[in-house]
What we know:
Blueprint: H1 35-66, H2 79-87, H3 93-102, H4 107-114, H5 120-129, H6 136-146, H7 155-169, E1 174-176, E2 184-186, E3 198-203, E4 207-212, E5 226-227, E6 229-231, E7 242-251, H8 256-266, E8 270-278, E9 283-292, H9 295-306, E10 311-316
Parallel strand pairs: 2-4
Antiparallel strand pairs: 1-6, 3-4, 3-5, 7-9, 7-10, 8-9
Amino acid sequence: xxxxxxxxxxxxxxxxxxxxxxxxxxxxxxxxxxxxxxxxxxxxxxxxxxxxxxxxxxxxxxxxxxxxxxxxxxxxxxxxxxxxxxxxxxxxxxxxxxxxxxxxxxxxxxxxxxxxxxxxxxxxxxxxxxxxxxxxxxxxxxxxxxxxxxxxxxxxxxxxxxxxxxxxxxxxxxxxxxxxxxxxxxxxxxxxxxxxxxxxxxxxxxxxxxxxxxxxxxxxxxxxxxxxxxxxxxxxxxxxxxxxxxxxxxxxxxxxxxxxxxxxxxxxxxxxxxxxxxxxxxxxxxxxxxxxxxxxxxxxxxxxxxxxxxxxxxxxxxx
Length: 319
């Protein structure tokens, strides 16, 4: 038995073993040959990622409403809800769940928009009757029973609309499943930089967590939450630099630290911190924390360091 990536030769006899539980994987794209096969694989992977995001988004919305002792289904209908979908360019509840699952929308924003809030007059009347010791959950339930209307000009609404308008004007440095304005955060365990092979995982309430493909922690995540993540070639021209740690092994000779600093300066790289120590066998170990734009700039810096006489080796530090 051979794996799918095995190359066939003339004269080979092939028996294809199938399984009802086997599904296409993004890894199949590495050895698929025809464009039709690649297209089918991408289509399946995209649909599978959308299905997972829908399930996760629905779960997040229901949990957010349950914090107030309310059922989400009661609010995901009616004129107010339809207007919310229209204002955010959504066409269905499933599409809303997918966006929330990807981290593009926060479930809290949805609740703030749909949750009824008492008017000033009614609130004053209620506060006179009650002792003021009711919990926030009980107040919300009372407001629901009284049929209070939503204040459509709340502060949260204005903040959300402003953030959405700003996000439409900018281009993200990362693309998640073809979308550019998805909330992402980078794994501190591997500190991925533009150009690194990366993989994303949908996290609860924090959007998509991005890791290097060879990061050990990435293999600990639930693979069902895995999504396709790519660096945008036409990302923002002034994107913030990413921090990388380099460990340099060298001979313990005078002036070597100065030469290494100059190598970074030639590439326009800023040194955030530097630590140096010497071992018993007279080997110097320097740990640099530097700011780089992308992997290309980092590789050029490593190449310049390796050309310095007395340098034994250079490695990128991965936690």
